[in-house]
Structures are given as C-alpha cells and as structure tokens.
Design a protein that fits this description.
This protein is mainly alpha-helical. Helices cover about 90% and strands about 0% of the residues.
C-alpha cells in the first residue's frame, strides 16, 4: 500500500513539475501547439476529397507558418505571409476552384439532358 501511495505522490509531483515547466516556457508550448495544428492541417490538405476544403486547410497551414515567423521575431515576413498567402493566394484558389467546379457541373448537366 505504501508503494502505491509513493507512486501516486511521484506522479503528482511529476505533473506539478511539468506544469511549472510549461508556465516558465509558454512560448515553447505555444509553438508546439501551433506546429501540431500545422501538421494536422497539412495532412488534411492532401487527404480531403473536397477541393474547397483542401484550399481552406491550406490557408490554415499558411496562417500557422506566418505565426511561426512571429515566433522567430521576423514580424515583417509574418505580416507579408498573412497578407499575401492567406489573404490573396488562398482566396484566389478558393474562388477559382468554386468557379471552375460550377462550370464543369453546368456542362455535365447540359450533356445529360440531350
């Protein structure tokens, strides 16, 4: 019974030390969370079947990369990343995909009626 209590005590103090480590290194924890989001979004870009969803996941990847530039203290590059890639390129991808898909669907419907 004493060994079990010692094990619980070790787990408690280990969690407490981990919490203090995370509070002392908030930038590291934020970077790791941001990197995990970027990796999951990048995997979603290549695995999603809807092309529009892939374009918006790509916007999330671009956003995460822009935030990484802020962690590296390259604010200008981060702002340019957000404005150009997230604001312009991704929206251009999304609109071109939506407009192209609409034309294809309209052409297919016209062929089936004849």
């Amino acid at each position: 019974m004493v060994a079990f209590i010692d094990l619980l005590s070790d787990i408690w103090w280990g969690l407490r030390d981990f919490m203090y480590y995370c509070l002392d290194n908030l930038d590291l924890c934020a970077f790791l969370i941001l990197a995990a989001i970027a990796i999951m979004a990048a995997v979603a870009v290549v695995t999603k079947k809807e092309v529009v969803h892939s374009a918006f996941y790509l916007a999330l990847v671009f956003f995460c990369v822009g935030m990484v530039y802020f962690f590296l203290e390259a604010e200008f590059i981060g702002v340019i990343q957000l404005l150009v890639y997230v604001g312009a390129i991704t929206i251009l991808f999304a609109f071109s995909i939506m407009l192209t898909r609409r034309k294809i669907m309209m052409n297919n419907e016209g062929d089936s009626d004849e």
